[in-house]
Automatic annotation (TrEMBL):
Keyword Transmembrane: yes
An annotated GO cellular component: plasma membrane
The protein's name in its UniProt record: Undecaprenyl-phosphate 4-deoxy-4-formamido-L-arabinose transferase
Encoding gene, per UniProt annotation: arnC
Any Pfam family hit: Glycos_transf_2
Species: Oryzomicrobium terrae
Glycosyltransferase 2-like domain sequence ranges: 9-171
InterPro entries registered for this protein in UniProt: Glyco_trans_2-like, Glycosyltransferase_2, Nucleotide-diphossugar_trans
Keyword tags: Cell membrane, Glycosyltransferase, Lipopolysaccharide biosynthesis, Membrane, Transferase, Transmembrane, Transmembrane helix
SUPFAM superfamilies, per the entry: Nucleotide-diphospho-sugar transferases
Source superkingdom: Bacteria
Length: 337
């Protein structure tokens, strides 16, 4: 491929994927070559602690015409690594792909065809998941819950094989959120979203970087970042429980008075522990949800960089063409607020 303005950019975040990178290279480049379009591949090393960065440097030296490598100075997380890749990509269509080969690179053509058909955002639905049973069940359950809370209608929100038109990527880059969920953020800007069914495979090597705790944290980011429904839910629930507790309390008092189960006013007044444990648990859970929102505000108002780029490996011709091309957006600083 030449250094012409690419139609397609493929952004791949990499974190401790040393064991599977060669398999990725062996399948990715032939798959993209078969598309018959000008493309570029942007690898974003998210502070890997293994030899991933060295292997990415080697791959850049093999294919400098279509390969660019962004080396982050520290681990910033998958979604911020993708944002760093968005900042550097130049294609009219941008596809995100995980490095573990669970989403085959041969499926990129399906997404590109959907964008060419007029859609500005193309999600993917995994035909048959090859994850562990608990991950599949948890993912499906959380997808349903997240859709109800956020009103974002995506069948498979956990699949990162997605395609975005340039204007959607630019809109996401204009957002300065320090915590976000890219598929949902893109959906809020899309006018003609669609989904395609793609294949799903077992990991080629290594292990998942998302623990159960990480998945829970990611879902909290999604729900609190795109909806105030949890706060509204607990407000309504608090009103309902308060009304029910008052009715229950009055009913118990009347019952005891008519059945002579109390001997004085003090016995009636101090019978307040009927729903105490339930109400305390409800309050603590509601405070936890409120704390999530307060924590997001705290993270946002500190104005710390979302990520910090250490080095960018790119061909001089690519760098020059990206600066001179009038059709491309202006270059962005490497330090994002």
């Amino acid at each position: 491929m030449s250094h012409a303005h690419p139609e397609l950019s493929v952004v791949i975040p990499v974190y401790n994927e040393e064991a599977g990178l060669q398999s990725l290279y062996d399948r990715l480049y032939p798959a993209l070559d078969q598309l018959g379009t000008v493309y570029e591949v942007i690898f974003v090393n998210d502070g890997s602690r293994d030899r991933s960065a060295a292997l990415l440097r080697e791959q850049f030296q093999r294919r400098p015409d279509v390969t660019r490598v962004v080396l982050l100075a520290a681990n910033a997380g998958q979604h911020m690594a993708i944002m760093a890749g968005f900042e550097q990509c130049r294609g009219d269509v941008v596809v995100t792909l995980d490095a573990d080969l669970q989403n085959p690179p041969e499926e990129i053509g399906k997404l590109l065809d959907a964008v060419r058909a007029g859609h500005d955002y193309v999600g993917s639905i995994r035909r048959q998941r090859e994850d562990a049973l608990w991950r599949s069940v948890a993912s499906k359950s959380m997808n349903r819950l997240r859709e109800r809370i956020t009103r974002i209608k995506m069948t498979d929100q956990g699949c990162m094989l997605r395609a975005y038109r340039r204007e959607i990527v630019e809109a996401m880059l204009d957002c300065k959120e320090v915590n976000t969920f890219i598929p949902a953020l893109a959906y809020t800007f899309a006018h003609q979203p669609t989904e395609v069914v793609v294949e799903h495979e077992a990991r080629s090597a290594g292990e998942s970087k998302y623990s159960l705790y990480s998945l829970i944290r990611l879902n909290f980011d999604l729900m609190t970042g795109f909806s105030v429904a949890p706060l509204q839910f607990f407000s309504l629930l608090g009103i309902l429980v308060s009304m029910l507790s008052v009715v229950t309390y009055v009913g118990v008092i009347i019952h005891r008075l008519f059945n002579h189960e109390v001997t004085g006013l003090i016995d009636v007044i101090w019978d307040r522990d009927i729903l105490a444990f339930f109400l305390i648990g409800l309050v603590l859970f509601g405070q936890g949800i409120l704390g999530e929102y307060v924590g997001r505000i705290h993270m946002q108002v500190r104005y710390r960089p979302r990520y910090r780029i250490g080095t960018i490996l790119e061909s001089p011709a690519v760098s020059t063409s990206s600066e001179d091309a009038s059709t491309l957006p202006a270059s962005r600083p490497t330090l994002q607020p």
